[in-house]
Amino acid sequence: METKEKGNRREPVELDERKLKILQAIIKNYLETGEPVGSRTISKFTDLNLSSATIRNEMSDLEELGYIVQPHTSAGRIPSDKGYRLYVDTMMQSRMQEVEQMWDALNDKADKMETLLQQVAKLLAVNTNYATLVTGPQYRSRKVKFIQLTDVDETQLLAVIVLEGNIVKNKMLPLVAGLNKEDILKLNIVLNTYLTGLDMSEINLSVIAKLKEQAGGLGNVISELLDAIAQAISEEEDIPVYTSGATNILKYPELSDNHVASDLLYELEEKKYLTELLNENSEEHGIQVYIGQETSVESMKDCSVVTATYEIEDGIYGKIGIVGPKRMDYEKVVGTLQTLKSQLDDIFKKNKEYLDNKKDNPEKNKSRNSDCYLKIYFQVNFEYGW
């Protein structure tokens, strides 16, 4: 706490929430432009709804506290080392709490999701008398949400990359000789300022040039970090696939031949080529029907495959597939998939707020999450008469 003159008295100067917001706005703006920041600029880019005069007074206090400095008499302010330190510590603390909450929510969500999708595959197989597949969630985009670099020891650097959809990637990197803790903090600020919200395809030469410019003497490290981050992001996810009803295909004479049945059962067990087939038209949201030769899987030439896409939230989706003979009951299969897809889409969207707000009331949301997954189970059972 500092003090300042007011008339003949000296009153304490505290870093309250308003000052902290103004300081964060100054630092963010300076990181983006490299130019001193004035009160009028802050009044345009913050939600404080304060006059320029009020902001000038607050900036004066921040300067007195040592968080910002005025490089020239007529210029705006720029962050001091003390200001950068507070910004980084506050940002890191907030981000780490967010990552911890993500892990808790994801672990809870993953367990329930696996149970749900296994049940969906089983119920579909019972209802249709065909073989069924349901894939776990996949992500259409790989936008960067947050990056944190941490030195593990004298030789290694850990990069934690959080992507849209709360996908967490970890990458161990060799620690560049001479890179100290202050350098790592600066790299964290620069990377998060310029990469947050971008897909890897959007990180072009212009973005890289800005990164290197802001990194100053650490520009040579940026290229190595970006290569490592890109590699971590592009690594293929092991998408779980849940199957059921494989032996149903033996009920149909045209598929019960030993050789045909053996190949089909092998494909359903291995899942690799069937998963590729399900994802051939990943951008298609409707029902897809592949008949005989239309499938890309050689052993499925005597079969038909009907697929649908369910949406958990924006950019996160999964696939449902039903495999049967070419003389399958298309009307029943398509109708079943349309209804199930609609229900899954609707319920996942309704319950997104419960998952997102888990941190506000963990026990309440935990209970409501469980109720939501049970709701899907019972809706599927009752509406289809299973």
Q: Can you describe this structure?
A:
With 386 residues, the chain is of the alpha+beta class. Helices cover 51% and strands 19% of the residues. It folds into three domains: 78 residues, Arc Repressor Mutant, subunit A, CATH 1.10.10.10; 181 residues, 2-Layer Sandwich (Beta-Lactamase); 91 residues, Enolase-like, domain 1 (2-Layer Sandwich), CATH 3.30.390. A hairpin with a 2-residue loop joins strand 1 and strand 2. Helix 4 runs parallel beside helix 11 and helix 10 packs antiparallel against helix 11. It is elongated and about 90 Å long.
**What's the helical proportion of residues?**
40-55%
CATH top level assignment of the largest domain: Alpha Beta
- The proportion of residues in beta strands is 15-25%
Helix-strand sequence: EEHHHEEHEEEEEHHHEHHEEEHH
How many strands? 13
Give the terminus-to-terminus CA distance.
68 Å
**CATH H-level superfamily of the largest domain:** GAF domain
Q: What profile does the largest beta sheet have?
A: 6 strands, antiparallel
Architecture (CATH level 2) name of the largest domain? 2-Layer Sandwich
How does the helix and strand content classify structurally? alpha+beta
Determine Rg (CA atoms, Å): 28 Å
Number of domains: 3
**What is the count of helical runs?**
11
Mean pLDDT: 76
Uncertain segments are: 6-11, 364-386
Globular, elongated, flat, extended or rod-shaped: what is the shape? Answer: elongated
Annotated CATH topology of the largest domain: Beta-Lactamase
